[in-house]
């Protein structure tokens, strides 16, 4: 399109816009004026929002010609109202040189964006009447809400409704929206059908498929909707999808078809029956799961399979017919006295003399010297015992926050782990007590600071120094795993140095107790830059997640930043799941290989998956380590820069809250307080 042609067309559009504006002023009872709408306005209730939306609509009615560009060379007519294109209004104004109409077009898109935001909020509330109202073109004409408009991570309104299982909302979006894209893709290429299968919403799955949703759609992980239904044990969805003849041969990025993702017997059996009925050949791989009676066995090695077969010789009872993540893969006797079962049932340890102990140890026995750290639900202070002059790291949690957010079980987990595990490289708990407002942990004070601080100071560690800290961390994790505990929050900030310079693990709030071999934990937790791929996929995780984080820790100590790091959260998550691992050429081949095996995205192929810490110790990178000397703290720690802290008195109320009502029983958490015997 030539500049002269653009200017001529632009002048015609200006004249048309001006005429329509004049017409609106004379005919409409609502004056043609700017409407200012804040985010809070959009979140008002329906009675307030609808008149606002209607006035917004009437304020920005422009003729179709105002949004159309014709290429006079090709005859192509381009409509710039597709809000999913970048800089549509400003680009159009630049092309047409329309200074007068640019502000009107910008205001139009502001109104459109507010309408779309209102639609997303209505969907999240499952407010069907408001959804229909926002999609009514008779009311809103050109600024009617767009069902295909994309928000955070490219989710559309249909993605939101499908993920939450709002069937009627999905139906309304499909029938009332203007050509709703039923196969719209998120930033990781998931369709609404993917999300409905992932979250187990059968009614939504049926609706989407009946409206011609792509049943074999593949996301960035190579998973189809069937993959997600299978790996999450939604047998009802699997059975229904199989009637629609999906392609069960599609493999995801781990080269697994849907059958190999099955975690319970019913789902596995459904796919086998489907294949037999249609004479579909099955490719059973050596390490596929094996059905036995009414359970699935995981074939990690042939000898393990033989052991499982021996232990499963008796037909399982109905109690054992649980999904894979609810029961151990090893079927042991119900009357087993193994320490594993005792650990799994670890409960808050009760002390009959709890109230007596609290009277001997409480907030008035300590003097606050320094704030060591701060989190969402509490703080850590350096305190000194007024009598013994001993220093402790005192972690205090706000009861109100903990109870409001249902986090008391995590507080108990942290307390129980430190109380029950005695290890040279795990922080010791000396006692715990409570005030009316706070729960308090009296922990060993490690004055050397955390590895995060030292990495920031030194940028990166030499190999010998990194290897020293890594060995002590591996021994600590090995001890946790022997006690059926997954740490799950390994990062430099949670590795602190004691007064001799030895490393110790701290902060067990996200740890998981009672993890029997092969059992899957489902919680999504951890720190953003230190999330393992299986955690991001939310498909469950085992102890192998800790060995991935060991790889992340070693990488950061040697390079200065975590692997795959990006300041953009979405890009970071994409890098963790699909990015290329970049290891500097200055790192030797043994270390590179060790890192690659730890940072393996498939946990079943990760170093440590089968034989835990033993596999790491046998790797060439650690083969020369004298583990006996390490566990006995005989290896001299590397030099670390001293952490200088300026102590100053901290008011008791700042640390412990109000103390006047200390004896109020209603606010006490029974069994919390204790003192470790010396």
From TrEMBL:
PROSITE patterns: ANK_REP_REGION, ANK_REPEAT, PROTEIN_KINASE_ATP, PROTEIN_KINASE_DOM
CDD domains xref list: STKc_AGC
SMART domains: ANK, S_TKc
Pfam families, per the entry: Ank, Ank_2, Pkinase
Biased composition, class Polar residues, residue ranges: 25-45
InterPro entries cross-referenced by the UniProt entry: Ankyrin_rpt, Ankyrin_rpt-contain_sf, Kinase-like_dom_sf, Prot_kinase_dom, Protein_kinase_ATP_BS, STKc_AGC
Any one Gene Ontology molecular-function term assigned to this protein's record: ATP binding
ANK repeat ranges, renumbered to this chain: 153-185, 188-220, 221-253
Region annotation Disordered: where it falls in the sequence: 20-45
Boundaries of every Protein kinase domain copy: 366-622
Binding site for ATP: 395
Keywords of this entry: ANK repeat, ATP-binding, Kinase, Nucleotide-binding, Serine/threonine-protein kinase, Transferase
Protein name: Protein kinase domain-containing protein
Organism: Blepharisma stoltei
């Amino acid at each position: 399109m030539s500049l002269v042609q653009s200017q001529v067309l632009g002048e015609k559009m200006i004249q048309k816009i001006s005429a329509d504006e004049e017409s609106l002023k004379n005919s409409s009872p609502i004056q043609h004026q700017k409407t200012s709408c804040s985010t809070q306005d959009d979140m008002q209730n329906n009675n307030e929002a609808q008149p606002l939306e209607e006035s917004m609509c009437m304020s920005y009615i422009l003729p179709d010609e105002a949004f159309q560009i014709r290429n006079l060379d090709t005859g192509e007519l381009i409509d710039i109202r597709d809000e999913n294109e970048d800089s549509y209004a400003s680009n159009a104004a630049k092309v047409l040189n329309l200074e007068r109409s640019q502000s009107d077009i910008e205001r139009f898109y502001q109104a459109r964006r507010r309408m779309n935001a209102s639609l997303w909020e209505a969907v999240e509330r499952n407010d069907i009447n408001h959804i229909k109202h926002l999609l009514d073109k008779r009311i809103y004409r050109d600024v009617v809400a767009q069902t295909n408009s994309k928000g955070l991570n490219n989710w559309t309104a249909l993605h939101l409704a499908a993920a939450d299982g709002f069937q009627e909302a999905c139906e309304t979006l499909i029938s009332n929206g203007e050509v709703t894209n039923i196969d719209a893709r998120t930033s990781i290429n998931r369709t609404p059908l993917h999300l409905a299968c992932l979250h187990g919403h059968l009614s939504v799955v049926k609706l989407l498929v009946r409206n011609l949703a792509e049943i074999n759609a593949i996301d960035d992980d190579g998973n189809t909707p069937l993959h997600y239904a299978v790996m999450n044990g939604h047998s009802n969805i699997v059975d229904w999808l199989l009637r629609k003849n999906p392609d069960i041969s599609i493999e995801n990025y781990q080269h697994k078809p849907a059958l190999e993702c099955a975690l319970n017997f019913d789902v596995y059996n459904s796919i086998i029956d489907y294949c037999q009925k249609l004479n579909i050949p099955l490719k059973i791989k050596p390490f596929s799961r094996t059905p036995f009676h009414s359970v699935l066995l995981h074939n990690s090695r042939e000898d393990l399979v033989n052991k499982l077969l021996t232990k499963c010789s008796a037909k399982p009872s109905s109690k054992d017919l649980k999904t894979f993540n609810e029961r151990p893969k090893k079927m042991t006797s119900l009357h087993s006295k193994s320490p594993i079962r005792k650990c799994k049932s670890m409960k808050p340890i009760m002390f009959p003399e709890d109230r007596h102990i609290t009277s001997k140890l409480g907030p008035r026995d300590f003097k606050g010297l320094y704030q060591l750290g701060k989190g969402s639900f509490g703080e850590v202070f350096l305190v000194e015992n007024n009598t013994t002059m001993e220093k402790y790291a005192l972690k205090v949690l706000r009861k109100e926050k903990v109870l409001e957010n249902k986090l008391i079980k995590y507080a108990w987990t942290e307390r129980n782990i430190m109380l029950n595990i005695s290890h040279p490289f795990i922080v010791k708990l000396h006692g715990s007590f409570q005030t009316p407002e706070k729960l308090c942990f009296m922990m060993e004070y490690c004055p050397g600071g955390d590895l995060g601080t030292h990495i920031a100071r030194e940028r990166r560690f030499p190999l010998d120094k990194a290897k020293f800290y890594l060995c002590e961390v591996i021994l600590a994790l090995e001890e946790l795993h022997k006690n059926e505990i997954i740490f799950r929050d390994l990062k430099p900030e949670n590795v602190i140095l004691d007064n001799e310079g030895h490393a110790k693990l701290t902060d067990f709030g996200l740890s998981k107790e009672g993890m029997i071999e092969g059992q899957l934990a489902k919680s999504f937790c951890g720190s953003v830059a230190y999330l393992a791929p299986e955690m991001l996929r939310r498909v469950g995780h085992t102890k192998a997640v800790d060995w991935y984080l060991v790889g992340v820790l070693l990488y950061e100590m040697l390079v200065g930043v975590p692997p795959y790091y990006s300041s953009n959260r979405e890009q970071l998550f994409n890098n963790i799941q699909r990015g290329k691992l970049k290891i500097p050429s200055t790192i030797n081949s043994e270390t590179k290989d060790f890192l690659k095996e730890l940072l393996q995205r498939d946990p079943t192929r990760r170093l440590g998956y089968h034989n835990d810490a033993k596999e790491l110790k046998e790797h060439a990178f650690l083969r020369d380590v004298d583990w006996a000397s390490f566990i006995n703290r005989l290896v001299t720690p590397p030099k670390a820069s001293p952490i200088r802290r300026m102590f100053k008195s901290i008011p008791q109320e700042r640390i412990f809250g109000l103390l006047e009502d200390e004896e109020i029983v209603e606010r006490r958490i029974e069994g919390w307080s204790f003192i470790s015997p010396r």
